[in-house]
Amino acid sequence: MADNDRRWFASYAPGVPHEVVVPDEPLGASLDRAARDFPDRVAVDLLGATTTYAELADLVARGAQVLHDLGVRHGDRVALVQPNSTAHVVGFFAALRLGAVVVEHNPTYSSTELHHQLADSGATVALVWQKAVAAVVAARPGTALRSVVAVDLAADLPRRTRWALRLPVAAARTARAAMRADVPAGIPSWHRLVAAASPLPASHPRPGGEDLALIQYTGGTTGTPKGASLRHRNLVANTVQGQAWTGHARGTETVYATLPFFHAFGLTLGLTYTVRIAATVVAFPRFDAAAVLAAQRRRPGTFLPAVPPMLDRLAAAAEADPRADLTSFRYALSGGMALPAETAARWERATGGLVVEGYGMTETAPVVLGSPLSPARRPGALGLPFPSTDVRVVDPQDPTRDVGHGEQGELLVRGPQVFAGYWQRPEETAEQLLPDGWLRTGDVVRLTDDGFVVLVDRIKEVIVTGGFKVYPSQVEDHLRTMPGVRDVAVVGVPGGDLGEKVVAAVVLDDDASPVDLAAVRAWCAERLAQYAVPRGLVIVPELPRSILGKVLRRVVRDDVLAPPAV
């Protein structure tokens, strides 16, 4: 496809520009503007505890001084190992205010997983949830960590809730155990340090748009995680593109942050974009449908970024609760995995609003494609390129050659949101980021006549059997329609002369009759080529999933290949 063949523009929703202007400014500039223009607007609502934009800006200035006192300087890495909380927001923007680089970590990781990431990034200070302090302390030897600071999640909760946590009853003890943990002597408290600090002087130098802002680790489902390095400009660009796409007016929206900030999807859609439009972010330390419905009664949401399982569980919970009302949600953006048609329909029945799909990668800050927020949305498609974003579909073996019109190939993307490369991994950067700025996504797609990108599968997960390519998603989609099958993952395992053998790992409905390989093969033979029909079947109680609910095919494959337990 020629660079000037931008057929997707014709499918844009009315008013969405083809190009956007990305300001040369640090990401924190959006917080400064929100505090100036909407000082009394609630910036963060954490389970009922509210912080206004003016209060948030003050906490960030104090947090920046705390980090400065701990020796953090421009370019230093600051690790955040926390669930969603007000403290997470403060620590994130405080580090950026100094020109430091935020490194986001999953707070449920083991010490081994954390050690790799902490050692790799060279983080010198870590702001850590109390429950994760033990893992970080165990991971500390051999890293550059000088200071570990403990974050008490309960300190951000409403006063009434904090009081209830002290009650000598079983429910309070359970809640305390879920939120708090003992902290070794000598590790300071983040909240106490911030409360005692003076604000960082306004004259302190700020970072520039080309400075590094964030390292987020990716690739854990396919190999050793590597850090995607994102500049302030990349992150600012995606918030500007997002606002152009949605048309959200500043100071009017309430965004539900049910996705974790330590994930690229949750960080941008739930935090940086929210601050860009001076919205209220209703934050949840973990996803819980009942907690979301309770928050909805207190502070109705208007925009929900989510993954399909979240949408399905919320709609189901609302259907079962006569007090529930989700109709304030005008839009939901679904990402992370394919959105089933029945889930989309269920959500739109529950809300009366629209749910559209989006696509992105950690390497693209993260969004590059979105379905239009209009009746022209295309269920089942990844969407259209964002403003100022170009795409190509190329031969995976030769990314310089575009495939023919409508043919399948690897998706390449280019735009201001594309990352700077992998942290300290020049060879892997060169493999994925081409010299002319095109990023190889590793996804097999096709482009429709009107510019929608449709996913076929991940290149690394394509199965080659008998010389033929089998796309697992296509086999899975068909098998999910088989009576009694609740879910399925299709993988390739060594298959002798075939190269690889197609194997289906199937989860059955609770009341389903037994299913054997012959029945699965007969069902698949109705719609699939013979070489794509599974040659192996494993019945499993559940499928391994990522933090966002995406099936981990690599883990499924390892489990299939594992010898039976003795």
From TrEMBL:
Q: Does the keyword tRNA processing apply?
A: no
Domain AMP-binding enzyme C-terminal intervals: 475-550
Going by the entry's taxonomy, the superkingdom of the source organism is recorded as Bacteria
> Which Pfam families does UniProt cross-reference here?
AMP-binding, AMP-binding_C
Query: GO molecular function: any one?
Result: acid-thiol ligase activity
Against Gene3D superfamilies, the record matches this protein to: 3.30.300.30, N-terminal domain of ligase-like
Q: Which UniProt keywords apply?
A: Ligase
Residues in AMP-dependent synthetase/ligase domain copies: 31-423
Q: Does the keyword Ligase apply?
A: yes
Name used for this protein in its record: Long-chain-fatty-acid--CoA ligase
Q: What organism does the UniProt record list as the source?
A: Cellulomonas chitinilytica
